[in-house]
Amino acid sequence: MKKYDFDEIIERRGTSCVKHDMMDRIYGTNDLMPMWVADMDFRSPDFVMEAIKQRCNHEVLAYTFGSDSYFEAVINWLKAHYAVTARKEELHFVPGIVAAIAFAIQAFTEKGERIMIMPPVYPPFIDLPTFAERELVCCHLKTADRRFAIDFDDMERKSKGCKMLLLSNPHNPGGTVWSKDDLKRISDICHKSSTLVISDEIHADLTLPGFHHTSFSTISPEAYGNSITFIAPSKTFNIAGMGSSIAYIPNDTLRKRYFGYLDGYEVANGNVFAYTAAEAAYRHGEEWLRQVRSYIAENVEFTMNFLHQNMPAVAAMAPEASFLVWMDFNGTGLTYEEMKSRLLDKAKVALNDGYNFGGERYKGFFRLNIGCPRSVLYEALGRTAEAFR
To answer: Average of pLDDT values for 30-58?
Structure first.
């Protein structure tokens, strides 16, 4: 069994890497430690890279499509991990989940119609409906025991007239793994209000040891018939640059409408390396995934202990899935501008600003990416603690 080295430091600057090479556009400087964009600093798996190299050896990169073996790998992964029994005709390649959500908004809603989200949430959930001139309906999450909880009374009130719910499952930025009861209540509310559920399950594979992810479509017959599920190998295997995601729709009517939109506008045909990388990941990725989840879980424990010992005024959520930590700096007693100044000017650490996850009420919150070698994480946390000392 191969032992993967997640402590390896890999130089990513100068590779058109968003995390490093776009910092100056976002933060106005490029001398920060990049602990923001949600990709990992680990080497992409050897079996994925070997599959890409083998495909390159053919030396003809022509038009392509998803082969039977590609769909077989996806189907087997869904079955083995989430008890999802999918058929090939229920699956469709999509060039990234953000794009797929944008297509769903166009395919199933009209200008002025209402779309519900649960802030704080991944910024494109806010930006996509806004750009499409849909009305955004916010059911803000509550915090209980340092994890997120859904305000179901608020959701039920606001769901009336909503055409769509964008569900982050597991949740980003909190890393909360929604329980079966949570998902069942969402399904019941949305079924009653005829609200289509878009379940973004991109972080599902990185559900950490001790927790269990439930795919939304499996929770009830109503969820099965009233949902579109998006998955991807991108976060799991650190291949986000491949833009290789999958839509799963078991409902015939929804599937014909959405797949018809994708095919009619020819916006989701895929590319040679996206198919190749995804198939290799899903076919050979079990052991790599086991090891990376273990390493991330250790990083979570390290981060929580460090903050407890060195920054007790910062309240952080220990993620149950993925490599993102949601932190509340408001206990420091500093203003929002002072917090940002200490992070950027003193610590020289780039975090995602909570404001972008839901507006004014999330000022003073920041998202930390811990998908990195522990030595990098130690330095970033040390700089931050010193800046706030």
So the answer is: 97
